[in-house]
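Take a minute with the sequence and fold tokens given here and flag any structure token that looks odd. Thanks in advance.
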Amino acid sequence: MLSAWIKIPYTIFVCVLVPVYWVERGPANFLWLSDVALLAMVPALWMENRFLTSMMAVGVLLPELAWNLDFFLRLIAGFDVIGLNATGYMFESHYTPLFKFFSLFHVMLPLLLLWMTYRLGYDTRAVYAQTLLVWVLLPICYLVTDPERNLNWVFGIGNPPQTGVSGSLYMVLLMLAYPLLVFIPTHFMLKAVFNGR
């Protein structure tokens, strides 16, 4: 059984984060895969749901670790070392300190995912469900969000949006890239480390 000392603070944190993000960045911001995972982990924690936890771990563990690498290297070096500018907003003055504080959930989320996967085990069905989720989510982001926001990189890797290929071809390639480059490698790593079943 997972401790209430984790469930309650996490739930309160998310309940406060949601209105802050809503005001600062609007509801579309919750379409980011990391934000989807942040929200999904509330019911996953309370229900101690191995499948939902595994699904979120497969989906965001590698991107969250990349976010942390980008953030801490930039914090230490003072400039964007990796070149993706994934964490540039954390160093820009036009975002409020409160928004930046809550954005530090990216530091906590991979730790929570790993701990819960350790405690609950890894469900190998997660890779299929996460792939289906992203195949629904990416077209939604492409059709209804601002290209300048570039949610989940549906308009190109980093900013500005790509112009090398057509938008529809890029979308197909992206829908293949997420499972092949992110989900499947994470799946095999989690399966090996946490005795997937």
Remarks:
- The chain has a mean pLDDT of 92.
